[in-house]
Amino acid sequence: MPPRNRRNRTAAPRQLNEAAQLADQLQRAGFTKRDIARIINRDASLVSQFYTKNKGAAFVPALQQVLAAIQTGGITDLPELATLASRHITRRTTASGTKARVRSKAVLITPTGSGTGRVGAQAIASGSSRLRPLIAEAAQRGLRLAFTVRLAKTGYVHPSGSRTDSPGIRREVVQRADHTEERSYGSSATGGHDAADFARRVDAAAGDVTAAVHQWLVETGRIRPDAHIIHLEVRTWRPR
């Protein structure tokens, strides 16, 4: 028996769920998936799952309110839209009718003030939001912080090992085989950075930790404006 000819078969278009439809409307209004993720305070990968895994039902009321605020009130400020959305986001219900469990923080600070959080390329692309609670808690406790970034060698302004770039840090440079480098900024020996100052920078960047760190590195003449951070680590401690 000859094989069936499958070339002429056309798959029926998949019906988007309500969350995906609302996300589409927001994108037509000029917002990106990353913007939508910031508005609902979630990772951008979740917004993609509105389309691929039929997720997002819990965010429909919030997205409806956000879309209405944009269309009728002309509101486009992301922090303002995020505040509006937060009032309408509730935990989803499981098949048994109970409230779904919420994941705990990806980062924790010990009673002594020691805490570490790391993110890779995927989390960085959506603003490293999982690091925001670490920085916020460090600011509340009056802690100091340091961070390590990894990017292409050509993205740095100063050459490897330059004490102008990262003075006093013995392990300031880690070179990788893929032509990237890790450089650390701040340590307990040099006093590090004021966590409260960085928390304010993150707030000013609408919660985007990646953007806040990138801006500091550019402002202080350490990296080029077009450099892309591909790894970020934040460490905290209590000042002596």
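(ticket continues) Second input and output from the same batch:
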Amino acid sequence: MVQKSKPPTAANEPERRGQPERRGQPKRRGRPRAYEPDVALGKALDLFRKQGFAATSLDDLSEATGMNRPSLYGAFGDKRELYIKSYQRYREDARASMAAIFREEMPVRQRLERIFASALSIYLSGETGPRGCFTVVTAASEAVGDPEIRAMVLDGLTELDKAFAGCFRRAKENGELPESADPLVLAQVASATVHTIAIRSRARVPRKELEAIVKGAIDVMVGGKE
């Protein structure tokens, strides 16, 4: 007698779990990120500028960014890597804010006045008080014992010197400075002035006093107004 074939049992059916989805069915997407990396990095930068590296804990960073520790590690690495990324972000923002002033054609005194005014606006910013220059803060702390961070800071200092040297070189070519003027030396004086007002701003020296320092430095570099 020929036996009738039995319908396949559940045990004989292939398991649906793990099978590729059929065509026409919408693909499942992973859970979207609950944070914006660029915004989170900005929050971390604000906190590091305010408190420094050592005084900032992972719990502080987690609270500031709204990300738990696993998410922080996944997005940015450990605390040191996050600090480095924050410093790089600071450099990019500072460079962008100054680029037009260094690039545009204008008298050297006007250019210096605008550069220092922009720097003061950056250094005196902060919801709880002036935060100064992140490069100066990093140079005095993390750059001391970390070769990679030290190299980044030195690169930042050199970049500023070169930008100022270009300004003074153009001014000399335009007859705004005497033939004896050394653009590189003047550039280092200008950079030193930037660092001075950065430190004093973090110590909450009033803006008027900082502006007086800037005016005196510019008079030394390019001569007083007639």
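Agent notes: Residues 1-5, 8-22, 25-32 have pLDDT under 50 and may be disordered. The chain is about 65% helix and 0% strand. Closing as not reproducible unless the customer responds.
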